[in-house]
């Protein structure tokens, strides 16, 4: 019979669940049986009403519908328990990408006016791929009516054909955030001949004109491939950038992170390998959020593409303070996390596993474990 180590015993005492999740594994979308493709991936959610008991959520994901090239927008008015088809974001630039695909979507709500777009405007971004796979195009679309209708706004970045081989020149994986008066799109960039792939961003004050490419993580070792940016503001007011590192020496696509006072200056920050206290190194497509519950510094929650568990940190990203905790949720390619109005609740959004032929989009709640006394305190 196995016995608990002292470390495991402390972990069990220190982290317990405050309440049970209300719902889990809700099916949001399953491709109809008569569709040629039954693949879904890269699900994303956006919380619109932060103060309501039953908040409104929008969601999207990447798929291959037979009736056009667009991102689906599904809507929930009960906090994610039920979903309905709400609208479509037709990528109308460049002839509409007829026969192509929209990969790696992202949704964002403007917290203040940007150019002619007022606070509350919903933005949708994605990587538009033409039918001949000749280019990659990170574009932005806007909705002025809470996601019901959409208009083309601008192209952030254009790269070469979608090819993950070092030396190719595509762009990938937009992530949108805002700092002071600038809206920023972070993305993965293979166009720089000095780097197989790097993380970069471009910023705007009007959503039309984009500033220069600024590095966020660009390694001197050409073969390393940082990718899949997510950014979260954490408990001490600093900003955490999480990313996978392709060709990393530790594990494939080992998750790394950086912490900076200014989210536009991550390239100056120290890179850390994320390793939990039990020795686990998360791998691939991290998604990171912060919630104020769980301790005096709140809780950083990071999901990866390999483990059903999440990795939490209650010490402002201290590299020695990561703990792996169970969730009961399925593994997904870039599983999205959304902190709900009750900040002890995080909505998990699963767009499906990468490369699987038959996938569904699902959602479920997870309750952030609350911090309790350590074993040493209990002994006293």
From TrEMBL:
Natural source organism: Aspergillus fumigatus
The protein's name in its UniProt record: BNR/Asp-box repeat domain-containing protein
Signal peptide: 1-21
Gene3D superfamilies listed in its UniProt record: 2.120.10.10
Keywords: Signal
Top-rank taxon: Eukaryota
